[in-house]
Amino acid sequence: MTKRCDFNCSFCSETLQMPDPSLEQLDTIRGNLAGTARVFLSGGEPLLRRDFPEIVDMYQEFVIGVPTNATRGVEMAQHLAGKVAFVNVGFDGPRAIFSRIRGDYDKTVRGVKTLASYGLPISMSAVVMRSALPGLPYLCQIADVFDAGKLKLILPLRKGNALGMPEREFITVQEAGDAFDRLCELRTVHDWRPALRLTPWTAETEGHMIVVEPNGTTSAWPVYDQPDLFLRLGNLLEEPITELWKRYPYKANHFAKYLGRSIQTASRPGA
Questions:
Q1: Nearest 10 degrees: CA dihedral of 26, 29, 31, 35?
Q2: If you count Cβ atoms within 10 Å of the first and of the last residue's Cβ in the chain, which end, N or C, has fewer?
Q3: DSSP strands (E only) in the chain
Q4: Global pTM value
Q5: Are 84 and 120 in contact (CB under 8 A)?
């Protein structure tokens, strides 16, 4: 929806700016997404768009997820209630970790509380760096307090702001798996309820997502041998997704991710 954001996360991979798409362009993209079941209306920070409620209305034929930092949750919650399937809030740990890595902890917490008060299902995602590992149990408890359906853990990618991160902040897939196992054990001990997900960057997760940029450029992501991690498929302002899908070489990884075969998972108790 936009490349603009009111945070400047230390790990952010999407730092290149471009103009916001118009409502007319977004309607063209909507039409070219025919046959797609689920879309994420993302950014940047999508809630910075004052016309975001209109965009949500435009995309009502889809199951809608909204990745957000929730800083405009207070203003937008009433306009999203009953219209989006879930809101995924970037949340990396308790106040000290969150403030160092991401931005205004208290503003995000106010936003999450407001979104939840309007009945919007909440999930959370964290980019896991070495210095944030001690905060993961606290993050899981925070997710439990907010009754988040799931907590997703993602490793940083070497792109954008993350190119300036110290090398020690990048943990290995093995270290991430060990941290995930410990978190699963603590979740059982403390009866925390959110489902857990860990996405490692391996051959099985390469290119597993299709990303549409504000200018319509559509790519497989992340593709490790591409300088910007994007493998261009075409432009969704010019062609339907069915044509771009034919050029998409990561179909197996795409399905494996959504079936939970290429990521580590722990289901919500009782689910």
A1: -130
A2: C
A3: 38-40, 63-68, 86-90, 122-127, 150-154, 195-199, 209-212, 217-221, 231-235, 264-266
A4: 0.94
A5: yes
